[in-house]
Amino acid sequence: MLAEVLASEEFVKAQRMRHLLQFIVEARLADREHELSQYALGIAAFGRDEATYHAGEDPIVRVQMGRLRERLRTYYAGAGRGGQYRFVIPLGKYLPEIEALAGPAGLCAQRRRLTLTPLVCMSERAPDISFAQGLNEQLTHQMYSVLGDRFVAQCAQGAAPSHAIEGSIRRDEERTRVLIRAIEIGAGAIAWSGQFDAEAGQAIRLQEQLAESICASVMHHVTRAERSGNSGW
Fold first, then answer.
1. Which of the 8 DSSP states describes residue 56?
2. Which ranges of the chain have pLDDT less than 70?
3. Are residues 30 and 53 in the same domain?
4. 100, 121, 147 — which closes off a domain?
Protein backbone atom coordinates (compact mmCIF):
# COMPACT_ATOMS: atom_id res chain seq x y z
CA MET A 1 0.00 0.00 0.00
CA LEU A 2 2.66 2.55 1.01
CA ALA A 3 5.15 1.26 -1.53
CA GLU A 4 2.63 1.70 -4.34
CA VAL A 5 2.12 5.37 -3.44
CA LEU A 6 5.87 6.00 -3.13
CA ALA A 7 6.45 4.42 -6.54
CA SER A 8 3.80 6.56 -8.25
CA GLU A 9 4.52 9.44 -10.63
CA GLU A 10 3.46 11.94 -7.97
CA PHE A 11 6.10 10.74 -5.51
CA VAL A 12 8.87 8.87 -7.29
CA LYS A 13 10.89 12.02 -8.06
CA ALA A 14 9.76 14.08 -5.05
CA GLN A 15 12.31 12.88 -2.52
CA ARG A 16 11.25 15.19 0.30
CA MET A 17 7.59 14.19 -0.06
CA ARG A 18 8.54 10.49 -0.27
CA HIS A 19 10.62 10.76 2.89
CA LEU A 20 7.95 12.65 4.80
CA LEU A 21 5.11 10.29 3.83
CA GLN A 22 7.16 7.20 4.62
CA PHE A 23 8.26 8.66 7.96
CA ILE A 24 4.77 9.50 9.21
CA VAL A 25 3.15 6.28 7.93
CA GLU A 26 5.82 4.04 9.45
CA ALA A 27 5.59 5.95 12.74
CA ARG A 28 1.82 5.48 12.66
CA LEU A 29 2.06 1.75 11.97
CA ALA A 30 4.66 1.28 14.71
CA ASP A 31 2.58 3.23 17.26
CA ARG A 32 5.27 5.90 17.54
CA GLU A 33 2.80 8.77 17.71
CA HIS A 34 5.19 10.76 19.91
CA GLU A 35 7.34 11.26 16.79
CA LEU A 36 4.51 13.05 14.97
CA SER A 37 4.31 16.34 16.82
CA GLN A 38 5.32 19.44 14.87
CA TYR A 39 8.49 19.81 16.90
CA ALA A 40 9.47 16.13 16.63
CA LEU A 41 8.92 16.16 12.87
CA GLY A 42 11.04 19.26 12.48
CA ILE A 43 13.96 17.49 14.16
CA ALA A 44 13.57 13.95 12.82
CA ALA A 45 12.10 14.48 9.35
CA PHE A 46 13.66 17.81 8.36
CA GLY A 47 16.94 17.77 10.24
CA ARG A 48 16.42 20.92 12.25
CA ASP A 49 18.88 21.60 15.09
CA GLU A 50 17.37 20.84 18.49
CA ALA A 51 19.29 23.75 20.01
CA THR A 52 17.85 26.38 17.68
CA TYR A 53 14.60 25.00 16.25
CA HIS A 54 11.36 26.66 17.33
CA ALA A 55 8.23 25.18 15.76
CA GLY A 56 6.29 28.42 16.18
CA GLU A 57 8.87 30.42 14.23
CA ASP A 58 9.89 27.90 11.56
CA PRO A 59 6.93 26.88 9.34
CA ILE A 60 8.66 24.05 7.47
CA VAL A 61 6.52 21.26 8.93
CA ARG A 62 3.22 23.05 8.28
CA VAL A 63 4.24 24.05 4.76
CA GLN A 64 5.54 20.64 3.74
CA MET A 65 2.60 18.81 5.30
CA GLY A 66 0.25 21.02 3.28
CA ARG A 67 2.14 20.11 0.13
CA LEU A 68 1.97 16.44 1.07
CA ARG A 69 -1.82 16.62 1.54
CA GLU A 70 -2.18 18.18 -1.90
CA ARG A 71 0.09 15.59 -3.51
CA LEU A 72 -1.92 12.78 -1.92
CA ARG A 73 -5.17 14.33 -3.21
CA THR A 74 -3.69 14.42 -6.70
CA TYR A 75 -2.57 10.80 -6.46
CA TYR A 76 -5.93 9.48 -5.25
CA ALA A 77 -7.76 11.46 -7.91
CA GLY A 78 -5.65 9.79 -10.58
CA ALA A 79 -3.39 6.75 -10.38
CA GLY A 80 -4.58 5.84 -6.89
CA ARG A 81 -8.26 5.86 -7.77
CA GLY A 82 -9.90 2.48 -7.24
CA GLY A 83 -7.51 1.31 -4.52
CA GLN A 84 -8.69 -0.38 -1.35
CA TYR A 85 -7.13 2.11 1.07
CA ARG A 86 -5.87 5.66 1.15
CA PHE A 87 -3.74 7.77 3.45
CA VAL A 88 -5.37 10.91 4.81
CA ILE A 89 -3.70 13.61 6.93
CA PRO A 90 -6.43 15.64 8.67
CA LEU A 91 -5.97 19.40 8.74
CA GLY A 92 -4.24 20.55 11.91
CA LYS A 93 -2.84 17.08 12.57
CA TYR A 94 0.24 15.15 11.50
CA LEU A 95 -0.95 11.64 12.38
CA PRO A 96 -2.01 9.94 9.12
CA GLU A 97 -5.23 7.99 8.97
CA ILE A 98 -5.75 4.92 6.81
CA GLU A 99 -9.20 4.86 5.23
CA ALA A 100 -10.72 1.74 3.69
CA LEU A 101 -12.37 2.31 0.32
CA ALA A 102 -14.82 0.24 -1.63
CA GLY A 103 -12.94 -1.61 -4.37
CA PRO A 104 -14.10 -3.33 -7.56
CA ALA A 105 -16.45 -6.27 -7.16
CA GLY A 106 -14.66 -9.51 -6.44
CA LEU A 107 -11.41 -7.81 -5.51
CA CYS A 108 -11.27 -9.29 -2.01
CA ALA A 109 -11.39 -12.77 -3.44
CA GLN A 110 -8.47 -11.93 -5.72
CA ARG A 111 -6.25 -10.36 -3.04
CA ARG A 112 -2.76 -11.79 -2.96
CA ARG A 113 -1.36 -13.03 0.33
CA LEU A 114 2.43 -13.11 0.33
CA THR A 115 5.07 -14.89 2.35
CA LEU A 116 8.84 -14.37 2.30
CA THR A 117 11.30 -17.21 1.96
CA PRO A 118 14.63 -15.90 3.33
CA LEU A 119 16.86 -14.71 0.52
CA VAL A 120 19.86 -17.00 -0.06
CA CYS A 121 23.35 -15.55 0.28
CA MET A 122 25.51 -16.87 -2.58
CA SER A 123 28.74 -16.17 -0.68
CA GLU A 124 30.29 -17.98 2.28
CA ARG A 125 32.11 -14.87 3.51
CA ALA A 126 31.03 -13.85 6.99
CA PRO A 127 30.38 -10.16 6.10
CA ASP A 128 28.16 -11.20 3.18
CA ILE A 129 26.21 -13.66 5.31
CA SER A 130 25.70 -10.96 7.95
CA PHE A 131 24.53 -8.51 5.28
CA ALA A 132 22.06 -11.06 3.92
CA GLN A 133 20.63 -11.67 7.38
CA GLY A 134 20.16 -7.94 7.87
CA LEU A 135 18.51 -7.54 4.47
CA ASN A 136 16.09 -10.38 5.22
CA GLU A 137 15.13 -8.68 8.48
CA GLN A 138 14.69 -5.29 6.79
CA LEU A 139 12.66 -6.76 3.95
CA THR A 140 10.39 -8.59 6.40
CA HIS A 141 9.81 -5.34 8.28
CA GLN A 142 9.17 -3.35 5.10
CA MET A 143 6.75 -5.85 3.63
CA TYR A 144 4.75 -6.12 6.82
CA SER A 145 4.61 -2.31 7.13
CA VAL A 146 3.17 -2.06 3.62
CA LEU A 147 1.06 -5.22 3.34
CA GLY A 148 -0.16 -5.69 6.91
CA ASP A 149 -2.26 -8.85 7.27
CA ARG A 150 -1.64 -9.72 3.63
CA PHE A 151 1.95 -10.62 4.57
CA VAL A 152 1.87 -13.95 6.40
CA ALA A 153 4.37 -16.32 7.96
CA GLN A 154 4.85 -19.63 6.19
CA CYS A 155 3.80 -21.46 9.35
CA ALA A 156 0.66 -19.34 9.89
CA GLN A 157 -2.68 -21.03 10.44
CA GLY A 158 -5.74 -19.97 8.46
CA ALA A 159 -5.61 -18.41 5.01
CA ALA A 160 -2.61 -19.74 3.12
CA PRO A 161 -0.33 -17.43 1.13
CA SER A 162 -0.98 -17.30 -2.60
CA HIS A 163 2.58 -16.32 -3.53
CA ALA A 164 6.03 -16.79 -2.04
CA ILE A 165 8.80 -14.22 -2.48
CA GLU A 166 12.23 -15.80 -2.79
CA GLY A 167 15.61 -14.96 -4.27
CA SER A 168 19.35 -14.59 -3.81
CA ILE A 169 22.00 -12.05 -2.85
CA ARG A 170 25.41 -11.58 -4.48
CA ARG A 171 28.01 -9.02 -3.47
CA ASP A 172 31.39 -7.82 -4.70
CA GLU A 173 33.57 -4.83 -3.87
CA GLU A 174 31.50 -2.44 -5.99
CA ARG A 175 27.86 -3.51 -5.78
CA THR A 176 25.19 -5.71 -4.28
CA ARG A 177 22.77 -7.55 -6.56
CA VAL A 178 19.50 -9.08 -5.39
CA LEU A 179 17.40 -11.31 -7.64
CA ILE A 180 13.77 -11.69 -6.57
CA ARG A 181 11.09 -14.10 -7.77
CA ALA A 182 7.40 -14.35 -6.93
CA ILE A 183 6.24 -17.96 -7.02
CA GLU A 184 2.56 -18.76 -7.47
CA ILE A 185 2.31 -21.47 -4.83
CA GLY A 186 -0.67 -23.35 -6.24
CA ALA A 187 0.84 -23.73 -9.71
CA GLY A 188 4.51 -23.70 -8.73
CA ALA A 189 5.10 -21.19 -11.52
CA ILE A 190 7.23 -18.05 -11.53
CA ALA A 191 4.76 -15.16 -11.64
CA TRP A 192 7.35 -12.38 -11.71
CA SER A 193 11.10 -11.81 -11.44
CA GLY A 194 13.13 -8.69 -10.79
CA GLN A 195 16.75 -7.56 -10.37
CA PHE A 196 17.83 -4.93 -7.84
CA ASP A 197 21.32 -3.41 -7.68
CA ALA A 198 22.92 -1.05 -5.17
CA GLU A 199 26.35 0.52 -5.17
CA ALA A 200 28.73 -0.17 -2.30
CA GLY A 201 28.04 1.80 0.87
CA GLN A 202 27.06 1.51 4.50
CA ALA A 203 25.34 -1.81 5.14
CA ILE A 204 22.25 -0.58 6.98
CA ARG A 205 21.48 2.12 4.43
CA LEU A 206 21.94 -0.37 1.56
CA GLN A 207 19.61 -2.82 3.27
CA GLU A 208 16.98 -0.10 3.65
CA GLN A 209 17.30 1.03 0.02
CA LEU A 210 17.09 -2.48 -1.37
CA ALA A 211 14.15 -3.44 0.86
CA GLU A 212 12.25 -0.29 -0.17
CA SER A 213 12.89 -0.90 -3.88
CA ILE A 214 11.94 -4.58 -3.70
CA CYS A 215 8.79 -3.90 -1.72
CA ALA A 216 7.72 -1.07 -4.03
CA SER A 217 8.13 -3.28 -7.09
CA VAL A 218 6.30 -6.22 -5.52
CA MET A 219 3.41 -3.98 -4.48
CA HIS A 220 3.21 -2.41 -7.94
CA HIS A 221 2.84 -5.79 -9.63
CA VAL A 222 0.42 -7.13 -7.02
CA THR A 223 -1.88 -4.12 -7.30
CA ARG A 224 -1.82 -4.13 -11.10
CA ALA A 225 -2.72 -7.83 -11.18
CA GLU A 226 -5.55 -7.43 -8.68
CA ARG A 227 -7.08 -4.52 -10.58
CA SER A 228 -6.91 -6.36 -13.88
CA GLY A 229 -8.29 -9.58 -12.40
CA ASN A 230 -5.34 -11.67 -13.60
CA SER A 231 -4.82 -14.97 -11.80
CA GLY A 232 -1.06 -14.51 -11.91
CA TRP A 233 0.99 -11.31 -11.95
1. T
2. 100-111, 154-159, 226-233
3. yes
4. 100
